[in-house]
User: What shape does this take?
Amino acid sequence: MAILTDEHIADAYHHQTERVFDDAPFVWLQRSRAVNQPHYDRTDLAALDRRLGSLVEALLTTPQQAWSRCAQALPTASAGEVFVAAAIAFRGSDVRCVQQAVEAGLSSESRFPGLLSALAWLPDSIAHPWIHRFLRSKKMDHKHLAVAAYSARCEDPADELTLLLQREDCLSHHKLYCGMLRLAGELKRVDLLPAAQRARHADHPDVKFWAHWATVLLGDADAAHALHPFIAAASAHRAAALDLCMRVLPLPTARQWISAWALDHTQVRTTIQAIGVLGDPLAVDWLLPKIRAPETARLAGEAFATITGIDLVEQKLTRVEEPLHPASDEDHLELSEDQFLPVPDADAVTTAWRTQQDAWVAGQRYFLGKPIERTHLEHIYANGRQRQRRSAAMELALADPQRPLDNHARVQGFSDHP
Assistant: This one.
């Protein structure tokens, strides 16, 4: 009979820790991508949360070994590894571990999402004391982390946010400034509208964008006109600007913008996306040829379905095609924006449109086949796929001056695990 020594047991735990540590960052990465993928819904996110929670709990059964593995990985850690390290450190009592995880997460923009995600993912009892501590820190990067965590958790720092927006040292840190403006808009902090309006004159383009964005969310729809340059140019904020403007501009103005982009061959994808967000059935005839072009077929099909509510897969309006493969960069795979969209059958889609187009009225905005109204939007936010839920959240926030912008990345019980 074999006798298990302490060394054997330690070795078994070591291998278990290694396996779990390898799995957890991958699951985190899978979830972070799932948030905006067209084939995931909130049930899928909840399943990933449970799996991630189980992996973190497994690591915490041997906390010393788990942290040793985390510390070993931190110097070259991916965002997913930073998430695991931060989730373990925040749940422990060693401030030095927290310091190492935070420093790693703040060391680069690529790692920051993992650190932020840990604060968003952990339960209130663990996350709140640390978020409050970071908010009161003298370091601006810590304050930025805290503000971003409030945003991810859809929580209001109340008077703290007001005071930060009055401090010159905070306004000179442009990432923190952007985060504060974004949070003010998301939370519908109308009391902070003057601060957002002042920020519209800032020199930094990122600050200027989030100032305009927040001002629109806070009720000044005319501020959307100032977002046009962020769409027309290849701006990092193009998608967010487009998503907001097409929902708040008067229909004739939105059509003028789209018509101008349609004349520019470099703006084809922008035009397709704008049509889908606007939900104008008058533009479907322009979309149909784009469904025939391989480079725009999937995106145009998504816009068509977003307007009409015709599910291409359920209605068998698709064709089989080789899947799009992301370019490989070792562990960091850049997914194509169209990766998981179905490939439309252009003839079948055209026939479906020609036989049903009288069901949609020109001059009316549609979202998934129905006029944009609260009951429909609430249903989509509760039951739709992730990109649909994101759109529904924005429409609901714009329709109600007092309703905050819900974070579609969160699901019920998101931070309620032990």
